[in-house]
Amino acid sequence: MKILSVNAGSSSLKFQLYEMPEEKVLISGVFERIGINDSFYTIKLNGEKVKKEANLKSHKEAFEILVDELVSNNIVTDLNEIKGIGHRIVQGGSYFDKTVVVDEDVISKIDELSALAPLHNPAAIVGIRAAQSVFKEATQTVVFDTAFHQTMKEETYLYALPYEWCDEYKIRRYGAHGTSHKYIAAKMSEILGRTNTKLITCHIGNGASISAIKDGLCVNTSMGLTPNAGLIMGSRSGDIDATIVPYIMEKTGMTPKEMDHVLNKESGLLGISGVSSDSRDIEEGIKDGNERCLLAQKMFVRRIVDYIAKYYVELEGCDAIIFTAGIGENSKSTRREVIDALNVLGIKIDEERNNTRGCVALISSDSSSVPVYVVPTDEELMIARDTYNLAK
Ligand code: ADP
Q: Which of 54, 177, 245, 256 is least enclosed, having the fewest CB within 10 Å?
């Protein structure tokens, strides 16, 4: 059965087509600058990447071109061969604790939650509508970044603010990257050969979050009402004293929108280093003796360590710590610095094993009190698995 995994942004559309249940990727790609000038798309097929220009006025046109490509490349003869389409949704609020089949009620709830994810939820609805109009027979599903974290207890997800705000304004911790944390937990259970596990999953990319997972269920996670909570990220501040916000707004006359922009786009590694939000640039800067890059990296690592330590206590120990995403899978130095700071708990790195990049690997020493792994994440595959299960 062919299943399409879709991630729609306001001007982009990423896709990956799978043969399920074999989990084989048949084709993948991304449409960019939809509705803007100079739009184009790239397609990856048989290990080759091709870029093509196209006038993409809407997401619907992108899906139509995708169908043409699938047919001309002999991947399908009839578009009805695609039985399921899974859409990634950033914010599912308290409504959704699992992947569901799309209907009008589901769409109106996603729309209602747009206030909490103004860039993402409306774009996803555009993607769903476009897919419905092109793939009329397929089962459309929605896979939420927040769903996996719905098992957190009230005392964990509430903020110590007026209790009514949770009901009135939906203010609470929802978390994000849930599809990735769930994938890593499932993969780790497979590696350890059991499901009763206590895991700390570290999704460290440009966006970054850590989760505490017990027996496959999320106990706590570092992102909050929005993704800008917890860890220091590429350009996001992560946790700060909330009172800084009104203080700076009063001092500078910044609007809420401007403040939000600084907190999400001009803070984090970029804000401290003044150089870049990209960890590779920070690593280069450190090599060149840039003090602010070094400071940014120290702060970045410190916060990761703080959350691992916090969740180690909350889980009352743990069976594995796992690194994933761009930095987690690739940056040897970040992993080493984090693990070195955890030596006090008996957690130790194996320098040789830590040379790994982008594949499943144990990177801790045999004498480490907790094994530490690198496991590449695969959110698209999780979307395809859930969609396959609902479509079949
Ligand atoms: P997101 O999906 O949140 O945009 P990614 O998971 O793609 O982010 O991670 C992007 C981050 O991963 C960037 O900071 C980038 O520098 C880092 N990264 C990717 N490859 C490497 C590498 N080889 N060494 C160090 N960092 C890397």
A: 256
Confidence tier at 115 by pLDDT (50, 70, 90)? confident
List 42's β-bridge partners, or say none.
30, 51
The token duo for 265 is 């786009």
Q: At what angle do helices 379-391 and 178-192 cross, to 10 degrees?
A: 90
348: CB partners within 8 A, 6+ apart = 339, 364, 365, 367, 368, 369
Work out whether the CA dihedral 290, 295, 296, 301 comes out positive or negative.
positive
Check if 205 has its Cβ closer than 6 Å to any atom of ligand 1. yes
> Does pLDDT of 357 surpass 90?
no
Angle subtended at Cα 177 by Cα 212 and Cα 379, rounded to the nearest 5 degrees: 115
- Which amino acid type is present at position 273? S
Contact present, 384 and 3 (Cβ < 8 Å): yes
- Residue-wise pLDDT for 42-56, tens only, equals 999 999 999 999 999
145 noted as active-site residue = yes
Single-letter amino acid code for the residue at 141 = T
Pocket of ligand 1 contains residue 286 by CB under 6 Å: no
**How many residues would you count in the chain?**
392
Mean pLDDT in residue range 264-269: 96
pLDDT tens digits along 145-154: 999 999 999 9
Ligand 1, pocket-test mutation among 201, 276, 280, most atoms within 8 A of CB:
280
pTM exceeding 0.85: yes
Cis amide leading into 227 (omega within 30): no
For residue 368, what are its two tokens?
A: 């480490």
User: 78, 97, 145, 378: which one is catalytic?
Assistant: 145
Residue 356 has pLDDT above 90, yes or no: no
pLDDT tens-digit readout, 1-41: 999 999 998 889 999 999 999 999 999 999 999 998 899 99
C-alpha span between 94 and 170 (Å, rounded): 8
314 alpha carbon – ligand 1 mean position (Å): 28
pLDDT of residue 229: 97
In DSSP terms, 372 is beta-bridged to 321
Residue 349 has what DSSP assignment?
B
